[in-house]
Amino acid sequence: MAKILIIEDEAAIRRVLVKILSEENKAYEVFEAEDGLAGIERIKKEDFDLVLCDIKMPKMDGVEVLEAVKKIKPETPMVMISGHGDLDTAVNTMRLGAFDYISKPPDLNRLLNTVRIALDRKELVVENNRLKKKVSKNYEMIGESPEIIQIKEMIEKVAATEARVFITGPNGTGKELVAHWIHQKSDRSKGPMIEVNCAAIPSELIESELFGHVKGAFTSANKDRAGKFEAANGGTIFLDEVGDMSLSAQAKVLRALQENKVQRVGSDKDIKVDVRIVAATNKDLRKEISEGNFREDLYHRLAVILIKVPPLNDRRDDIPLLIEYFTKKIASEHGTAQKKFSDKAVKLLQEYDWTGNIRELRNVVERLIILGAAEVNEEDVKLFASK
């Protein structure tokens, strides 16, 4: 139910507004405040989805209320109520952050329309903030080891540039995480982040996946289809396991980097694209180049900035932090209370050989949470974390 606060010193107008909004929509819960000071006190104590506020009031006028609300609850939309002589002031409140203003006496349709739009906008803002927090949390880098601190510092330096980044490291170390952090901290963060797992796409389809195709380009091409490069326009494309890409696709990626253009399979029409490329691999590309499996010119185009993500065995000091992070995350996902790990259990896990890296640690932590005691102990680790 949407909570609406009306701050108005004239009781008659207050009553009219309450009646209109309450009768119009049963989902509106309408509250009153007789002046600006009373309104501010209510806003400090509770959250409102919308505030309707008169401009001319004793004790504290509407402009002062607006400025105060923007400091204590900046996400709360405010609609100002203006008398005939207050129109200039009402317009000025828009510059100060008011959502809109309504003249007295209020026109019914204008009032209801403004309220509806303001509430819709508030809902969008809240959802957007929730998603931003969710994204930020999902791609949080956990660790205080020198290796992770160095990666974080490099991301801070590189993200704001347009430099291409090449991420190396074994499977399960968090290369995808690094790529997402680079995108989130870049000027392209409002644009799309498109991921392509080059190892998961058959070699005969990789070009169509990356660059799209036109109808009839091959047997199953029943209609025109845009590729990942077009989808990433204005944002970032992450080419994961790029070492598995076919030589033919590599040549087209090289052209896209050189000319900022792509051609759909079966077409000779150039399509301009504006994308930043972040690539990753678990292979030794120097070896792949020497064996003729990867183009050296493409490697040098991609590897402007190199970031090496270390295996978990090289950053064992981060394991306690990772265990704590995973226990919180898993408890949230399962809707259960967070379990604790004993010091001996954590120490034993630090001594394990983590060939599967962070991905393996996460799975083991989840297994111990499900099967272990109320406080996961050393015996639980020996029993359930063994390979």
UniProtKB/TrEMBL annotation:
Transmembrane segments: none annotated. It holds the Pfam family AAA_lid_14. This is Fis family transcriptional regulator. SMART domains: AAA, REC. Gene3D superfamilies: 1.10.8.60, 3.40.50.2300, P-loop containing nucleotide triphosphate hydrolases. Residues 3-119 form the Response regulatory domain. It comes from the Bacteria. GO terms for biological process: phosphorelay signal transduction system; regulation of DNA-templated transcription.
